Every structure is written in C-alpha cells, then in structure tokens.
Amino acid sequence: MRNLYVKTSNTTRFLAKFAALQDRGAEEACLMVVDGSPGLGKTETVQWWATQQGMAFLRAKQGWTPSWMLRELLGELSVAPLRTFEQMYRQSLEALAARSRLATQEGALFAVVVDEIDHIARRTDALETLRDLSDMLEIPFVLVGMDRVRSSLTRYRQIGSRVGQFCEFRPLSPDDTAALVSGLAEVPVADCMLDFLHRSCGGYVRELKEGIKAIERCGRRNAGPVI
Description:
Elements: H1 9-22, E1 31-35, H2 42-53, E2 56-59, H3 66-76, H4 85-105, E3 112-115, H5 124-137, E4 141-144, H6 149-154, H7 157-160, E5 163-168, H8 174-184, H9 191-201, H10 205-221
Parallel strand pairs: 1-4, 1-5, 2-3, 3-4
Helix pairs in contact: 3-4, 8-9, 8-10, 9-10
C-alpha cells in the first residue's frame, strides 16, 4: 500500500472550517474543535496538515499536567525548557509569538494542533493554560478528539465561548472510498469491489486500509488485470 495522504471530503471540510476561523469576528474566539468517531482519519488529516504548513503538533497524554504540556510544546518549538512553570509559560509565549510573526511575514499559516484532547477534556488546569496562550497571542489552537469531546469542552463556559469553529469528521462517502483506493492500492480494483469495500468498511478509514491490504495480498497471489 502506498504511503501517501489522500484528500477526502473530511479534508475539504476541515480546511474550510479553519479558513472560516481565520476570518472570525471575535479575535479571542480562536479555538477550533475537531471531533468524530475513532477511525475516521482525524489524526492522519491534522498530522498531514500540520506537516504541510509547519504547524506545532502535540499529542495529549493521560495525566498531562500544565508543566508537562508546556515542556512538550517547547520541545516541539525547539526551545530548551527552563525549570519552573512560570519560566516555561513565558518561553512558550515568546516562542509562539516568534513563530506566528515569521509565518505572517512569509504569508503562511500558523496554529497549534493538540490531538487526543480527550485526555485533558476534564482537566481545567491544562485547558486553561491552552486558553491563556491562545488568548494572549490570538493564535489558533486546533483541539482534536473523539465524538464526545465537544460536550466535554463546552461544559466550561470560558472554553466553549472561545471555540470559533467545530469540525465533525463523518464516515467516508463512496467517492472518498474510490479516491482512497485509487491513491493507496498498488493493484487495480474493479468497481464492484469498490462498492463491496465501501459497504464493508462502514465509512471508516482504518477498516478501509485493512481491506486494501487484503485486496493487495489477493492480487499478488492471483495475477490478473483487475481484482
């Protein structure tokens, strides 16, 4: 299976939502929540986007504390963290501001992506630290989690009021399935197999990739013009 990213309707929706966030009216409403069931390609999409745009990308951990989070953020920004929380917070503000200014000068985008935000969705201390950084700098923070994370985050008024955009990842459409198979599969696949694969995977990227692997194994054992 080819190692590349294939754009789907979820990609298009995500990019449109971020563009809308950039055009927001309230400057402090610069949080974006990306949610959806596991296996719909959220992490793959935000990693691809963060890499393409040179964004800061973090993965939240179970038990993340504000200090632990800032240390990982500074590592992502190639800054050696100092010892205290106050020092690391000041370092983070300075490093994020510098990256944001550079992106503006180059006509590029800059944001901080935090995947697996579910791990801290009920940790107000960590969430408040993210909100403070976002408020102080007016830099977009993209918070990515599973389908219940929206209600977990918006239960806190100070967080929910700053979410400028929500982006829900949905199951793949038949066209998405065809695009992914065309881009990833290293053997030709018949249209009837595409229909079967789409129904079988239920619209989930993870299951679809497993199906593509099975098709490729079959194709290599049974040489023919199409599977």
